[in-house]
Each structure stands twice: as C-alpha cells, then as structure tokens.
Amino acid sequence: MKNKKDWYSQILKLFFWLTLCLVAVVSMLSVPGQQMFQGQDKLSHLFVYMVLFGLLLLAYGKKWRLMSLGILLACFSALIEVAQSFTGYRQAEWLDLLANILGILVTALFYKALKSYKKTSL
User: Dihedral sign, CA of 32, 36, 39, 45?
Assistant: First the structure.
C-alpha cells in the first residue's frame, strides 16, 4: 500500500464485502422463534440496510455515484428476497424489500445532509 489512506480504503472495502456476505448467508438461514414486538423484523431489515449502505458509501462513495450504489444494493436486496422464496423454509416479502430500500434511502439522506453540512461549515 502506498499510504495510510490506501490501507484504510482497502480495509473498508474488505469489511463491506464481508458484511454483505454475512447478510446474504444469514438471510438464507431458517430463523426460529418469535418477535419481541410487532414490526421487529421490518425494523431489523431497515437497520441492516442502513448500516450496509453506510459501509458501501464509505468503501466506494468517492468513485461511484450515490444513486448507482443505492440501486445496486436495492437489486441485491431484491435478489435475496427472490432466493428466499426457493428455500422452502423462507419466503419473499415485499415489505422486507420495502424496509431494505427505506434503510438505503435513510442512509442516503443522512449522507447528503452530512455532505451539505460539511460544505457550508468550511
């Protein structure tokens, strides 16, 4: 690595890909048990995709457009939902996909607001 920034960038990319793989694997597992409160499942979808999109932006946000990254992650989310329908013990849910996309949008809005704030405060 040339410098500390290159090393940091590579670590962020590795961490994003490991997290994405973990999300894919966990999404395909059978999940026994009940929810502690109504909507817990959708809230966890929202939170996971907020974090995942945040990692994606940190890893690739300087080289890729925000919209492109958001669409790619939303497509990944849709593919996971489709794949779940073929397991026999999981099912695809439109509300899960909606919660995932909402998580992406929340992070995108936060990212844009933070970028705007940085520009005005300098």
Answer: negative
- Between the CA of residue 44 and those of 5, 18, 60, what are the distances in Å? 32, 19, 24
CA 71/CA 48 separation, integer angstroms: 16
Q: Strand, coil or helix: what is 122?
A: coil
The residue ranges of every structural domain in the chain are 4-27+40-121
Give me the amino acid identity at 104. I
The pLDDT tens digits of the residues spanning 67-120 come to: 999 999 999 999 999 999 999 888 889 999 999 999 999 999 999 998 888 778
What single DSSP character describes residue 99? H
- The helix-helix angle for 66-84 and 4-28 (nearest 10°) equals 30
Q: What's CA 82's distance to the chain center, in Å?
A: 17
Which tokens is 81 given?
Answer: 């939902």
Count Cα neighbours of 42 within 13 Å in the Cβ-side half-sphere: 12
- What are the tens digits of pLDDT across the range 23-62? 999 999 987 777 788 888 899 999 999 999 999 999 999 8
